[in-house]
Amino acid sequence: MSLDINQVFADVVAAIKGEVKDDWSIVKDATNGFLLSKQGRIELLISLRMADEISDEFFKKRLADEKDILQSELSAIALISKVTAQNAANAALNVLQKAVETAIGTVL
Amino acid sequence: MKSRQVSPRLFLATKTSMVLLFLLSVLNSCQVHLVPSYSADLEAQIVNAAKMTDKLYLEMIDAPADKKNYALYSDQYIAIETEIHSILLINQNRDKAKDIVNSVTILSKKFAEYKDDHKKRDTLSNGELIAYNADLQAFWAPVLVEEQALSKAR
Hints:
Helix content of chain B: over 70%
Number of strands of chain A: 0
Strand content of chain B: under 5%
Number of domains of chain A: 1
Radius of gyration of chain B: 28 Å
Largest interface: A-B, 47 and 43 residues
Radius of gyration of chain A: 24 Å
Helix content of chain A: over 70%
Largest sheet of chain B: none
Shape of chain B: rod-shaped
Distance between the termini of chain B: 59 Å
Oligomer: heterodimer
């Protein structure tokens, strides 16, 4: 049989590592973006409150809204993670497919 | 009559190639799908609706104190709410879009809440409008990030 299982396995692992490494920057950028934006909003709320441009009640409600914003952001991170997992799985399957095609070519 | 003998080597090669062909056909049909397919139209719709939201609030902030009444802006509120509902409906009918539906549902709920506050009190201060706009852009951001992430799916 002309299928070197060890080499195929090594190629699959390399393909998965490559995908996860590339896609991690998407997760990192999204997370950093959300955190920076959150910091900006909290600072804005504090400055509006201190300038008495919003009431204490309004200020507290907007702070409470940060929980909903976080929930939405976590959904985005979950989806990006699924994109990463999908890409890694399909990269692994593509490596396997190519290995089998090569092996068939050798046998025939 | 002498029976034909198949060479063992030929038999093994044939058997091996059949196994490999079967494996290849299985692999061909095995692509993992954990997320919906990307839609450029939907991304454009999200960007446009987020812009409409920003425009509405900036116009209200810019207006003189006696021109911040809800009635002057109700059409714009309704237009944006219609877009949000459209984006929600599309995603509710998309396979594997649970995360996106969650984000759009939160956006829809908060947009309606802020709109209703304006309607109930008739005018909002600039401070309140600035805070509401900042929050709404934060609710739009994950929705856009989610759709853009789908364009990276392979």
